[in-house]
Amino acid sequence: MRTPATSPFPVPILPPIRSNMNQNRDRGNMGRGRWQSGLLPRPGGPFNQRQNFGFGSKFSHQNGRNDERFVSDMRLTKSEETLSRKSIAFQEPCELACYSRVEGGEVHFNDRSLRLFKRHVCDEVGADLNEGFETFIEKNDSDQQGFGDLLGCIRDKQIPLQNIHFVTFRNNLNKILATAYIRHEPWEMGVHKRNGVIYLDVHKLPERPQSELDRRRCYWGYSFESVATESSGFDGDGLRHINANVEYCSVIKTKLGAHRIIMGAEMDCCDTMDDGKRFYVELKTSREVLDNRTEERFERQKLLKFWIQSFLAGVPFIVIGFRDDHGRLVRTERLRTKDITHRVKMKNYWQGGVCLAFADEVLCWLYGTVKENEDYILQFVAPFNRLELLQGPSCPDTITHHVEQLKAP
Question: Which pTM value belongs to this model?
Fold first, then answer.
């Protein structure tokens, strides 16, 4: 969000940047709004499969697979240099609606669960993020319930889907953009085309059983969100009580390349400018950066994911709570989303334009391959050299119900 020239962004709005890391503070034109970095040639008319564009054959013997469900693949053959020469337009994200889930699971199509950012969060340094762990209510992994809430909000607010190509949660787009650089993390998602719209629903892959330390580390993130927001997460006795199922979600419209997208994006909290205009703030936790090796890992991987998540939804600021190995908050750092790419570009770690160009190729391939009223699974698995599109078992009830409701008079 832009601050009026006559009213500069006041220092007390967010905590001052506190970092021991070397940062490149050069400013550029990357951030919210329409951003160009070259042009990816795209076909006219129908998206027909083309030779030498990374598409697989019906039988994928080249990679040692012979899955009867196989439909198509996109081999990851484009180099970073090739992708960096492409320029993909990204339209400024526009919020269309929002919804809230409250204690007990009830959903309201308003902002009642939106939290307010604590401007003096740096005063919380030293807080024990373990507090409240014993009463923590973990997130319900019912993916379809969450997607159904997003679709219900679209219907309730009568958001038109004409000329929309994809409806998804931001998390699915996060995975696609990150795959331009992170090639060792498997993922999959459902792909369902109805009335010209491709619905991407979230799939969770099986995970190894979590230890108590794993659960604590996950909790530290929720705990920092509680610490960094006003009057949230505490019961009547002043003890921290966190329910991960209470959330606020923004429904956003944007455009990546030629494809118009509506996505749901969970937001941590918000703040306001002097003129009362609201903006969102992303809250993150990370292990303290202690040496050059951990700094490089942080900037190569974590900052990449932080940037993707905030950039896609037009979130202008990220506040990171750095903690030690015991869950103690040791410092906070504020980042402008638009500055992150310049910080890492000088070190040649990754480029935002490459992520966008890669995602554009994926969306072009998907929209040109999937057929109306058919269901698929898009997956990225070992040996991590291609994306695979497989025939899916069926369409989730939430999407079927949504399509039927749209047809109802």
Answer: 0.84
